[in-house]
Amino acid sequence: MTHVHGTTAPGFEPVEAAFERNFADSGEAGAGLTVYRHGSPVVDLWGGEADPATQRPWNRDTLAPIASTCKTFASGALLRLVERGQVDLEAPVARYWPEFGQNGKAGITVRTLLAHRAGLPSLHMRPLTWEDLRDWTPITDTLAAAAPEWPPGTRHGYHGVTIGHLVGEIVRRVSGTTLSEFLHSEITGPLGLDCYVCVPDAALPRMATMVLPDEQAVQLGMQVPEMADFVQALNDPDTLSFRAFYGSVTQEWADANNPRTYQVESPSMDGVASAHSLARYFAAMIGEVGGIRLFSPALIDQLRTPHSDGLDELLKVRTTWGLGFLVPGGPFWPAPEHLTGLFGGSGATGSFAFADPERGLAFGYVPNRGSELLEGGDFRVKSLVEAVYKAVL
pTM value? Predict the structure, then answer.
């Protein structure tokens, strides 16, 4: 049996038991899990191996790729500027990024962009290179010149490979610094977080090695009935889903253990975090942590209000978005849907983070075995979240 380390507050023992079962029954390799309640950790656990090949153990400060969960870092940075009054949600993006106003995009507001309603899910460029990510502007220039795939504001679709740069460029234009620099100075530095969209050299030795999901299990995951239309679209080069996810993105699971993947700013897909830091980040959004609160209750209420709900133009299933964060609704939300007012983010590595302001909860889970599902977590995540609510409801 895998030995689990850490602490669990009285009443939260079911969460520790669920975490242990993931190793025994669900093929967990290594993972961290932290749950905050009312600004303090009530569950802080880790176990397994950060690198199964060398048997390097998972520690409390182990970092691992979190895939799309890192979109919440870019969204949080932009909303920090909204909180300060430096960005207006109702203003056109072109107010802050003039070149963006080309080709029918002049009326797209910051709110529309954060709600995944801008119609810009595809990069429309030759295959994306590491140098493009390093240099940043080849990607933002392409997005500035693009025409929307649908009339902005009329429909929504997951901007899975573009939202990080779209949001990050507004942050860059307003703050005068890179997204990474802004995150460090305004959020991760003051809160002492190991959350990155560009990993510094000093943090690389703490990186976990990703264990690629079993191909047979991935194929079974793609046979989930509600995902049938999405899988069909991904296999058709004429669809927007194919063009957005495969048409210009060349990174694959094989790149998951290449350090340079994480040493460029790729805030849609390639962020890194520890579980403790991820939970602390979400805790600081909804309450004071270490004397810091990131957002006012009024902004949190806007952030978690559904702005987009229904059939997703890219994912072909129901998705529900607040402002830059997933909110309950559809198969890509792994927490109980009957609990409203939550917000978070999930990633293809199996990572998941969310906050529940009503109950003062913040949750961060980071594994190093990739999920068999494309997004939205898997049984490992769902079992942990269910256990948290058994402890508090």
Answer: 0.95
